[in-house]
Amino acid sequence: MDNIFDYSCYRFTKHSLQCIGHWPFQSRRDKIFLRCLTFFLISTILIPKIIKLIESLNDLDMVVECLPIIGCYIVGMIKFFNWIIMEDHMKQLLLTIKRNWEDLNVESELEVLHQYSDQSRRLNIAYTTCCYSVLLFYFCSPAVPKILDIIKPLNGSRPRIPLYHTEFFIDQDKYYVHLLIHAYLTVPVGLSYAVFFDNLFATLIHHACGMIEILKLRLEALHIKNTTQGPIKFEIVMNRIRTSSDLQTEIFKFIEKLEAAYSFALLIIVAVNMILIITAGVAAVVKMSHPNEMIRVTIVNMCALTHLFWSSWLGHNLIVHSEHIFLSTLSKWYLSPSPLQSILIPIMVRSMKPCRLTAGKLYTMSMESFGAMVKTIMSFMTVLNSMR
């Protein structure tokens, strides 16, 4: 089963999901152990953070500072439970990828699918590297006071800066190092859920785009203008059209499964991201007098914005590719005799409306929706800042 996913273009995604116990073809024991472990680690930081938020409800600035971090962990937990609930859907999607690779026997089509899969791998590696690089920069913020004490010493030591505020009901100064180490161990786990969820999402979308490109090439290679050469040639073209129609149906079913597996989770994630960006933006304004803390909050803001952009861009990529099906069919349709025109019409009709991925049918994953969302976010930030 795993031979296809041991290829270089899928290996990174496979090993990433195995690390957190969400590769569908792992042993049941490994999945349960890794899921329980990662859930426990995330809970040990999320619960104290929520307690701190509840204790600080009368302090608007502290609430605004706590919400972005809590939102990040909520996004991770949403993806955690979505994977568990939708595991069968994920498994079916991966099995479809395996079957597509096995069914293709034309070298040029295999090359197209490999090209899209490899592009997905490179984008996933770049996205993961970027996210963890930002996390590393975020981890360095508690060291700033120590560095400043060396570069520009004061009469006394500068106050320590926690990675973020939590409530463990212990002396925060006495156990500062212990709490910092705990944060360093748990924060990457929450980020891993967010990043690896997006990596699989990108892998599945790129596979769909690759199959659409193969369908496009098949439609463009029908050579309908030569169908008058005889019944044998006519029958060959008829078979090619039927094969293309079957492939179109299979692609649409794949995208429907992808929508079913991700739609509800994306709805909550988009909503949380919107709240994250707004609160982090307000928090950045609140912390303007403390540059170090302002930079940290700004990083959270940019990460949430990038996360929303990434998901929207992937969905937009699918829309653009699906539009090619209609254009490829139309480009040859007028050259064909009447019997073939009638067979091509269903392909054209089904492809007139581009394939779209949505967040709960309320937000279309596209760059147009992303632009509208950013405008809405800026309006909310302006209102909240004026209320302070």
From TrEMBL:
Source superkingdom: Eukaryota
GO cellular component: plasma membrane
Membrane topology of the entry: Multi-pass membrane protein
Biological process annotations from GO: signal transduction
Location in or out of the cell: Cell membrane
GO molecular function, one term: olfactory receptor activity
Record keywords: Cell membrane, Membrane, Olfaction, Receptor, Sensory transduction, Transducer, Transmembrane, Transmembrane helix
Residues annotated as transmembrane: 32-51, 63-85, 125-144, 175-196, 262-286
Assigned protein family: Belongs to the insect chemoreceptor superfamily. Heteromeric odorant receptor channel (TC 1.A.69) family.
Protein name, as recorded: Odorant receptor
Lineage, uppermost ranks: Eukaryota, Metazoa, Ecdysozoa, Arthropoda, Hexapoda
